[in-house]
TrEMBL record:
<dbReference type="InterPro" id="IPR052021">
    <property type="entry name" value="Type-I_RS_S_subunit"/>
</dbReference>
<dbReference type="GO" id="GO:0009307">
    <property type="term" value="P:DNA restriction-modification system"/>
</dbReference>
<keyword id="KW-0680">Restriction system</keyword>
<feature type="domain" description="Type I restriction modification DNA specificity">
    <location>
        <begin position="16"/>
        <end position="170"/>
    </location>
</feature>
<dbReference type="InterPro" id="IPR000055">
    <property type="entry name" value="Restrct_endonuc_typeI_TRD"/>
</dbReference>
<keyword id="KW-0238">DNA-binding</keyword>
<dbReference type="GO" id="GO:0004519">
    <property type="term" value="F:endonuclease activity"/>
</dbReference>
<comment type="similarity">
    <text>Belongs to the type-I restriction system S methylase family.</text>
</comment>
<keyword id="KW-0378">Hydrolase</keyword>
<dbReference type="GO" id="GO:0003677">
    <property type="term" value="F:DNA binding"/>
</dbReference>
<keyword id="KW-0540">Nuclease</keyword>
<dbReference type="Pfam" id="PF01420">
    <property type="entry name" value="Methylase_S"/>
</dbReference>
<keyword id="KW-0255">Endonuclease</keyword>
<protein>
    <submittedName>
        <fullName>Type I restriction endonuclease S subunit</fullName>
    </submittedName>
</protein>
<dbReference type="InterPro" id="IPR044946">
    <property type="entry name" value="Restrct_endonuc_typeI_TRD_sf"/>
</dbReference>
Length: 183
């Protein structure tokens, strides 16, 4: 998927702007670990790829881009389709300007995730400074081109997810059948 995205984004023409020019970068609010549960209404995103736990409230609406701020996976870009709690080691992309399609921006940032990850500083608990993320350059083509690119890449992303789900189901069925053969 990343090779296809790279091909799109290396060949587009448009205005080059900074991330801060087209959106607000908002740092989340920390929730004490004692208030997190193993299941709940809303997941809590912090500095990782997976949720830190669950919480009974949310502070970020659905369909929001998040970028991990701290930890070994800082710079990880995610599109959150449900409301969630943005923790203290998570940035969210808010108030995107009208000339930028949200899914286009997500795919652009995801394609450039390795570059974003290189913005990290520190070694014990690495993190990405908001000021450095704000200076990250984004190519913004005309809105019609953004919509075409984001629709195509979103479709590919869904296709990859369906194929992954099928593979997991087939592997599970295979294991079940093998166990039945040798009972």
């Amino acid at each position: 998927m990343s090779a296809i995205s790279e091909r799109f984004f290396t060949s587009i023409n448009g205005d080059v702007v900074t991330l801060a020019d087209i959106c607000d970068i908002v740092k989340g609010k920390q929730v004490n670990g004692e208030f997190l549960t193993d299941s709940g209404n809303y997941y809590v995103m912090n500095g990782g790829i997976e949720p830190s736990g669950y919480y009974d409230d949310y502070n970020t609406e659905a369909n929001t881009i998040s970028i991990s701020e701290g930890g070994n996976s800082c710079g990880y870009v995610q599109f959150n389709t449900t409301p969630f709690w943005s923790g203290g080691h998570c940035y969210t992309i808010q108030n995107i300007t009208n000339n930028v399609e949200k899914l286009y921006l997500y795919h652009y940032l995801k394609c450039n995730e390795d570059t974003i990850m290189k913005l990290r500083i520190g070694s014990g608990l690495p993190n990405i400074q908001k000021k450095d993320l704000a200076k990250f350059r984004v190519i913004v083509p005309i809105i019609e081109q953004q919509k075409t690119i984001s629709a195509f890449l979103s479709l590919l992303e869904r296709k990859v997810q369906v194929e992954t789900d099928i593979l997991i189901a087939v592997q599970s069925e295979k294991q079940y059948l093998l166990r039945q053969m040798f009972i």
